[in-house]
């Protein structure tokens, strides 16, 4: 932003310097400074490059220096103040990143210490901070830096671009206003408090928090599966008959947050699915040998997510995920519980075991129904 000829409105200039428009006009009338720019006789505008000096003059006046004396203070050799040399010397060999800025508008790098200078992509003296990281204009740290130049704030924690990692967001420093000669533009130093050790610690902490969140989610899922298994057992303990099987699938849908569920007994190498609990599956007859994943799940007798082709074979709408839970009783696979979900989730060993418990209860009910049918119809 520090380009030759760049100007801002009188209102914005006053906000950035802390000097009212009326005082600016008084200074101009009595001392000829600062001189506004008028384009084709239009409204007053002021050069952005004058902002740091106006801030320095304002602070000197507030400290009791006569305005005329403060106005005579000139910038030596292009530096913002003699403090830049002292600050650079003190910070040169510090083990943390240290950078000094002039401002508030534009924010220009005035010095960097050896830690920063050693990085090829780090800012250099003379760089405009917002040209290097335009996103920083919307960062809370930007407002903090401006306050250090224009308000009475002397020091504050500040977020800013990471000098050491390609100017990405997320670095933290302690920012404070450097001592400077009255009447000369101020500088703000940022001393890194975001060390490599702290970053590693934070990364480990974030990883641990992610693991804890995953464990909590898994525990919640396991609780849901345990509740579902217990509810299915309660149904068969209290009731009997074919209607109870439909009640069991309804319970699974409700307790596990499934979209739909249905029972598919085996018959001649196929799974025969009637109407599902909510009508999104079946009725279908699917030959198990057509799909390796389905055959593997029934052979291994473990719950398994199916590929889209298997879900489609059972009539599942596109985009839904099919979980197959084999029905096993007395070492025999009697079919499977088919459940539809909006998305897949990772099944823990505990969750899979609880699903097997629920499906085992349903399988025993199927055996009981089969035996009852055979007793009623001996020739069956």
Architecture blueprint of SSEs:
Elements: E1 7-9, H1 10-17, H2 21-31, E2 45-47, H3 51-62, H4 67-72, H5 83-91, E3 98-102, E4 108-112, H6 114-117, H7 129-132, H8 140-150, E5 155-160, E6 171-177, E7 187-192, H9 196-238, H10 242-256, E8 260-267, E9 270-273, E10 284-287, H11 292-300, E11 304-305, H12 308-313, E12 321-329, E13 332-341, H13 349-376
Antiparallel strand pairs: 1-2, 3-4, 3-7, 5-6, 6-7, 8-9, 8-13, 9-10, 11-12, 12-13
Provide a descriptive summary of the structure in words.
This protein is an alpha+beta fold and 380 residues long. The chain folds into two domains: 7-194, Orthogonal Bundle (Multidrug-efflux Transporter Regulator, Chain: A, Domain 2), CATH 1.10.1660.10; 200-376, GAF domain (Beta-Lactamase, 2-Layer Sandwich). It contains 13 helices and 13 strands. It has helices spanning 10-17, 21-31, 51-62, 67-72, 83-91, 114-117, 129-132, 140-150, 196-238, 242-256, 292-300, 308-313, 349-376, and strands at residues 7-9, 45-47, 98-102, 108-112, 155-160, 171-177, 187-192, 260-267, 270-273, 284-287, 304-305, 321-329, 332-341. The strands form three sheets. A six-stranded antiparallel beta sheet has the order 10-9-8-13-12-11, with helices on both faces. A five-stranded antiparallel beta sheet has the order 4-3-7-6-5, with helices on both faces. Strands 1-2 form a two-stranded antiparallel sheet. A hairpin with a 2-residue loop joins β8 and β9. α9 (196-238) packs antiparallel against α10 and α9 packs parallel to α13. The longest helix has 43 residues, at 196-238. It is rod-shaped and about 105 Å long.
């Amino acid at each position: 932003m520090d380009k030759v000829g760049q100007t801002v409105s009188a209102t914005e200039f006053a906000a950035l310097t802390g000097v009212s428009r009326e005082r600016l006009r008084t200074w101009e009338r009595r001392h000829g400074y600062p001189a506004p720019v008028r384009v084709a006789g239009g409204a007053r505008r002021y050069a952005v490059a004058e902002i740091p000096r106006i801030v320095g003059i304002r602070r000197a006046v507030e400290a009791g220096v006569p305005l005329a004396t403060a106005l005579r203070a000139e910038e030596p050799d292009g530096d913002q103040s003699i403090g830049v040399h002292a600050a650079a010397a003190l910070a040169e060999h510090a083990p943390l990143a240290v950078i000094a800025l002039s401002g508030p508008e534009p924010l220009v790098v005035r010095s960097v210490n050896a830690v920063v200078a050693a990085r090829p992509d780090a800012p250099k003296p003379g760089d405009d901070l917002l040209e290097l990281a335009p996103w920083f204009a919307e960062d809370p740290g930007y407002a903090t830096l401006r306050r250090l130049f224009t308000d009475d704030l002397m020091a504050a924690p500040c977020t800013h671009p990471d000098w050491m990692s390609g100017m990405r967001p997320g670095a933290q420093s302690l920012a404070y206003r450097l001592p400077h000669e009255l009447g000369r533009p101020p500088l703000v130093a940022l001393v890194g408090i975001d060390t490599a050790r702290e970053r590693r610690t934070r990364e480990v902490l974030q990883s641990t928090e992610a693991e804890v969140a995953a464990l909590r989610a898994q525990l919640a899922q396991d609780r849901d599966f345990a509740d579902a298994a217990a509810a299915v057992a309660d149904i068969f303990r209290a009731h009997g008959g074919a209607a109870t099987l439909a009640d069991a699938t309804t319970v699974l849908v409700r307790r596990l947050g499934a979209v739909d569920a249905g029972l598919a007994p085996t018959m001649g190498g196929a799974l025969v699915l009637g109407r599902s609990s909510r009508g999104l599956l079946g009725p279908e007859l699917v030959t198990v040998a057509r799909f390796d994943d389905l055959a593997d799940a029934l052979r291994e007798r473990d719950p398994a997510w199916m590929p889209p082709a298997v879900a489609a074979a059972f009539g599942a709408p596109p985009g839904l995920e099919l979980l197959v839970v084999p029905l096993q009783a007395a070492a025999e696979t009697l079919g499977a519980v088919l459940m539809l979900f909006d998305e897949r989730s990772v099944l823990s060993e505990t969750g899979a075991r609880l699903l097997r418990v629920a499906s085992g209860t349903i399988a025993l009910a199927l055996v009981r129904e089969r035996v009852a049918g055979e007793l009623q119809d001996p020739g069956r």
